[in-house]
Design brief:
- This protein has one domain: 2-Layer Sandwich (60s Ribosomal Protein L30, Chain: A).
- The radius of gyration is 16 Å and the shape is globular.
- The strands form two sheets. The protein has a five-stranded mixed beta sheet with strand order 4-3-5-6-7. Strands 1-2 form a two-stranded antiparallel sheet.
- With about 180 residues, the chain is of the alpha+beta class.
- The chain is built from five helices and seven strands.
- Helix 3 links the parallel strand 3 and strand 4.
- Helices cover about 40% and strands about 20% of the residues.
């Protein structure tokens, strides 16, 4: 099995893999699944005391990508249950002033992970999100994509996910101490 995130749900320790998250979400927004996996990984490294397994009920998550970033939402929910607990925000206005790549729908590639009151901000590094991806999303906002464009957009999402999962989390994000 591949990479996994370990969380504690009451008295049970869960190991949730990237593959598990894909099974939960599917592949449509797989790049978001990968980004959320790595954001949680880095967020836990920076906010959870050494040797401690993060407890789900102490985790909150903010995504400035909005509700349409379902890969992020589903991955975070599977690992943390933050959506069900009301501990996840998907407000696109959040992080407006943060230096992070923009998404064509108005959101930003910016996340915040909080564990037991300790918070860290993570913005996706410039250049990680391909221009082809944002270009196809921009087209999709103005009209329906044709078959070839839809196929290519999905290929680009898969390429983003593969790239993200091949890197260490620190290579993907600029860290904002909050």
């Amino acid at each position: 099995m591949g990479q996994f995130i370990r969380v504690k749900d009451r008295d049970t320790v869960l190991e949730i893999s990237y593959e598990d998250m894909i099974k939960y979400h599917g592949r449509f927004n797989i790049g978001g699944v990968a980004l959320a996996f790595k954001a949680l990984e880095l967020g836990f490294q920076r906010t959870v005391p050494p040797g401690e397994i993060p407890e789900r009920n102490k985790i909150s998550f903010v995504s400035a990508l909005g509700e349409s970033a379902t890969g992020v939402v589903d991955a975070v929910e599977m690992a943390t249950r933050a959506v069900s607990r009301g501990a996840m925000s998907t407000d696109m206005d959040f992080g407006r002033d943060v230096n992070a790549p923009s998404n064509p729908d108005g959101g930003k590639f910016y996340f915040e992970v909080t564990y037991d009151g300790k918070k860290i901000g993570l913005s996706v590094k410039a250049g990680l999100i391909p221009e082809e991806f944002t270009g196809l999303l921009t087209i999709a906002m103005s009209r329906h994509l044709n078959w070839e464009e839809m196929q290519r957009l999905q290929e680009v999402k898969e390429e983003i996910a593969t790239l993200v999962m091949s890197k260490e989390a620190e290579e993907l994000f600029d860290i904002h101490q909050l």
